[in-house]
Design a protein that fits this description.
3 helices; 2 domains; alpha+beta; disordered C terminus; SH3 type barrels; 5-stranded antiparallel sheet; 173 residues; 4-stranded antiparallel sheet
Amino acid sequence: DAIDKCAGTHQMVGLKWPNDLLVDGAKLSGILLEAESVSRGRTALVLGFGVNCVAHPEHGLYPTVDLAALGHRISADQLFNALALSLDHWLSVWRRAGGFKDVRKAWLARAVHLGRTIRVRNGDREMAGIFLDLDNRGHLVLGLENGQRETIFAGDVFLEGLQPEGSPDIPKF
């Protein structure tokens, strides 16, 4: 939302579960959330992100892009201010009774891999299937070849055609 506001675009950015922002398949941004239990049943959360505003890595595992290369001259300060407003908005939506339903719906509207074959890797475990949905906690629901559904709590997602070099192709179902 913040990038669209600053760039004057409408849904230019797509979301790749769990934490990347893509434009036409190229990574523009990554987001990292880390949570830890603290005293008296409370949880502390750290949110970190990076947006390629004026430069991007030329060589890496995946294609990357920056806002300037897309024709948008947006300063880090402008983007930060827009992000603060957007984050405030979505946190207020989240806090409402049943608010995650609205967050989930907005996230799915931008999901670049919904209904597509993906591969998910978590440690030594890897599986392929169709990205079907997000559950009521934001976990990925993967449809397997055998008709079963697998809920993925964490992992690296590889989109068809966007696997790192040297990775085997995703099996076609």
